[in-house]
Amino acid sequence: MKYFFEERSVAITEYISGDLDFGAHLHGEVEIGFAAEGSSRLCIEDRSYEIKAGDMFMVFPNMIHRYEHSEAIKAYVVIFSAALLPEYAGAFREMRPVSPVIHCGDTHIPALFEMFFSNGNMTYETKQGLILAIMGTAVSLTDLERQAGYGPGALKDILMYCERCYTDNITIETAASALHMSRSHISHIMRDKLNTTFCEYINMKRTDMACELLGKTSLSVTDTAFAAGFGSVRSFNRIFLKHTGCTPREYRRGKKCVQI
């Protein structure tokens, strides 16, 4: 499965969604939402949670998550910088909700979300106050558990390094040196969070790049292999076949391949 790191330049982002479905990603902000209608499914790392009308959902920073199987959904979504609520700095940094989907029942959460989205001219301070009120209620309705024992930004740093350097001649050793982490630490994080290895993740990134080059340019298979970061055409052919189910030449000819 593909993952990507999403960067934002504003402290608060809000939108109303008619289709929550979104691929696996992570970001350094907190994400909260309220399902006014319909249903969806929230997947956080290796856990899955059903979202139904009347539920609130929340994702803490740097947690891989995705949405799928949205049906007739109307969801109010707010993504905000963790620095916005210093009261929860420790929780955002070290903890995670045991149940990130909360049935709101008779709480004020639905009204708070409605208020948040009812005024397009709302001040930053008012938005901040409403977010604090929503989080205060939400945290009181669920337990928090401690996250894995490594820095919350470690996975983000690894993924961003991979994004910058996957076409270069990199190994887990060069990543460890660049990121000032041990090789075993990187291996543990990638296995724990992504259920993959550093080498497999880099090969997946290179294969994705090769697919783009084969489909959109006239580069030869050999040039495509080296442009995508592979060390030899032989390894390129082997890894490409493993990840797509077809050879690079078959892919270019338009054969329907299934990426694994």
From TrEMBL:
GO terms for molecular function: DNA-binding transcription factor activity; sequence-specific DNA binding. Keywords: DNA-binding, Transcription, Transcription regulation. Residues 156-254 form the HTH araC/xylS-type domain. InterPro entries: AraC-bd (IPR003313), Homeodomain-like_sf (IPR009057), HTH-like (IPR037923), HTH_AraC (IPR018060), RmlC-like_jellyroll (IPR014710). Pfam families: AraC_binding, HTH_18. This is Helix-turn-helix transcriptional regulator.
